[in-house]
Amino acid sequence: MNKNVIFTTLIGVSTFTLAQAESAHQHGVANVNIAISKQALVIELDTPADNVLGFEHEPRTEQQKQHLSDTLLLLNRADSLFNIPSSAECKVQQVKIENPFAHEEHAEDEHDEHAKNTHEEHETHSDFEILYTYDCQHQLSNINMAGLFKHFPNFITLKVQWVNENKQSAKTVTKKDNQVNFNE
Amino acid sequence: MKLIKIAFKSALNRKVSLSLAIFSIAISILLLLGVDTLRKQAKNNFLNTISQTDLIVGARSSPTNLLLYSVFHIGNATNNVSYASYQDIIASKKVKWSVPISLGDSHRGFRVMGTNGDYFRYYRYANGQNLAFQHGTAFSGVYDAVVGIDVAQSLNYQLNDEITLSHGIVATKYGEHADKPFRIVGILQKTGTPVDRTVMISLQGIEAIHIDWQSGTRSSLRISAEQALKMGLQPKNITAFMLGLSNRIEIFQLKRKINDYAKEPLLAIMPGSTLAYLWQTLGQFEKILMAISALVLLAGLIGLLIALLTTLNERRREMAVLRAVGAHTYHVIILFMLEAMLVVIVGCLVGIALLYGLQSIMQPIIAQNYGIYLHAQWPDTMQIIFLGLVLMLAMLLSLIPGVIAYKRSLQDGLMVKI
Fold first, then answer.
1. Which of A99, A149, B105, B123, by CA, is between 20 and 30 Å from B209?
2. How many CB pairs (< 8 A) connect A and B?
């Protein structure tokens, strides 16, 4: 009897858990994708601008422009956002920021089209996409994201999906539960 | 030793109320262990069914839905993927291997899956195990079929047997593809996954049986099996496909590319993370179920307490006589404890027996409907610790009637009542 209950529940749940991973623009929530393969580690952070910036419109005042460039600097400092065990000896290779307001500062050629797209919709919503690429000497067991919550208090949950050579999984990371373990 | 004998004989005198107490303990143990076992085994089953597949791609719907119908054969696809899109995507350099899946037909209650030879090469389950053949080989001809071990066993199939497939998931007479029989060329070894309950044929085979079908019904134009072979059985649609990548680091790029695919609304999911999300949500339900079971157990124990307390009056004489013939006060308390232990131990044993009985009855039904395999196994350490706790709790509870009885035994029982 109780078994049936569980399975009905299971099927029921499946129809409303739904678009968890690909959830669109939602303030407080960001997607973090982590891929590990051999020596390479890639972390993608895809977040509504509000989470890191506090506003989503074109920076208008000098103060807002200053805030934007401060934020960009902070987002560039991978080490202060993601805490990776020193035993893995990971070194940041590259940080690539797709800034929705980039056409003001600089527009990379390859992102022209994207920038145009976001430009059209930025009066309502804007997103940052940041790509961190690392090179690691040893196997990586975990990544701690307390830094992200510390520097950007607007973050409430991070939807983390990860894949390494053996496994893929997902975790909802919060301020309290802020570590992703790859050996669980 | 003597005390156990006395306790047992005394209990025999009150067998009706005590056996009811045993029964209620047994039911609550069944519920608790059942929920726990089911939870653990369902999770293991899900986690072991797919391994080393980087992405699963299907028509755009919810990730959970796509995962459930493509891998676990639970529920149905909302839409198909065109074969052209499939070929376009797997042409990418990022893709190392791919396996197409075409669902929608059945054979006597078992799902039929159209695929190609790569399925047997690349599909992995448990910790990266390959599919292996118990008899025969993979299909090579259009009308060849490979069956899972459960299909072969429950329908008693041997190599070279002929089978006919039915249109749709529920077998109906009118939807029988009787004019195009398939020959079993391979039987797979047991995997403990939904594969065991699947009939696998080639995509061309799926195409052939539907060649004279239009909009879900058979057209008046009949095309024989031989004619169909000559008609270039290029599939137009598939249900979903699995992908393996050359370099896992590119998984999110490829996933995004597929999700933004312009020609057709597609959804690419990572099976592992989709399962993890599914389990996160189910975790809440697990907790609620466990809490309910714990409360039921508590009710069972209170039932035991009531059974012990209500007999106190009947047992005044018994206790008094025991004290009179030289029983210590603690003997009285121990008698009650022994009785409670007897009830709980027998209750646990009956509960476990019921659990196994129910599991073996439900196993085929659950496997058929939900693709989840339950294995009868001994209670694990956690469960044994848990049963021990139940026993301790029962002993503590039995102190209440024990102490009351001991307090009353002297003054009470031997007094002559008017």
1. B123
2. 111
**Domain definitions of chain B by residue range:** 2-46+282-413, 55-269
Distance from CA of B201 to the nearest CA of A (A): 28
Measured CA to CA in angstroms, residue B326 lies from B322, B330, B399 at distances of 7, 12, 21
Distance (Å) of CA A168 to CA A183, B252, B328, B413:
10, 12, 64, 70
Torsion of CA B86, B87, B88, B94, to 10 degrees: 90
Mean pLDDT score across all residues of chain B: 87
- pLDDT band of residue A117 (cuts 50, 70, 90) is very low
* Max CA pair span of chain B: 105
At a CB cut-off of 8 Å and minimum separation 6, what does B222 contact?
A: B179, B212
Report the candidate in B390, B409, B408, B402 with the shortest Cα–Cα distance to residue B302: B390
Among B90, B159, B93, residue whose Cα is nearest residue B118: B90
Strands of B78-191 (E only): list them. 81-82, 95-107, 110-115, 124-125, 129-130, 133-136, 144-147, 162-163, 166-167, 182-188
Distance (Å) of CA A141 to CA A136, B19, B349: 12, 54, 43
The pTM (predicted TM-score) of the whole model is 0.78
Q: List CB contacts of A56: < 8 A, sequence separation 6 or more.
A: A48, A49, A50, A122, A124, A125, A126
Residues on chain B bordering chain A, Cβ-to-Cβ distance under 8 angstroms: 31, 34-35, 38-39, 42, 54, 62-65, 68, 74-75, 247-252, 259, 269-278, 280-282, 285, 289, 293, 362, 366, 369-370, 372
- Best mutation target among B277, B286, B292, B295 (most A Cβ atoms within 10 Å) is B277
Six-digit token string for B141: 């001809």
How far, CA to CA in Å, does B2 sit from each of B110, B211, B340? 60, 81, 17
> Where would I find the beta strands (DSSP E) of B76-140?
81-82, 95-107, 110-115, 124-125, 129-130, 133-136
The single residue listed with the structure tokens 């029983």 is B327
Whole-angstrom Cα distance, residue B130 to residue B123?
6
CA-CA-CA-CA torsion sign (B314, B316, B318, B319): positive
Reported as half-sphere exposure (CB side, CA atoms, 13 A), residue A159 has a value of 21
Distance CA A161, CA A172 (A): 9
pLDDT in tens, A141-179: 999 999 999 999 999 999 999 999 888 999 999 999 999
- Nearest of B51, B49, B39 to residue B286 by alpha carbon: B39
Domain ranges of chain A: 30-181
How far apart CA A127 and CA A49 sit, in angstroms, is 5
Q: Is residue A163 less than 8 Å (CB to CB) from chain B?
A: yes
DSSP state of B134: E
pLDDT of residue A115: 44
Instruction: Give the integer Cα–Cα distance in Å for B53 and B347.
Output: 45
The answer to whether the CB of B234 falls within 8 A of the CB of B102 is no
Complex ipTM value: 0.78
pLDDT tens-place string over residues B151-201: 999 999 999 999 999 887 765 666 778 888 999 999 999 888 899 999 999
Q: Which residue of A has its CA nearest to B288?
A: A6
B46 compared with A184, residue with greater pLDDT: B46
B308 touches B340 (CB < 8 A): yes
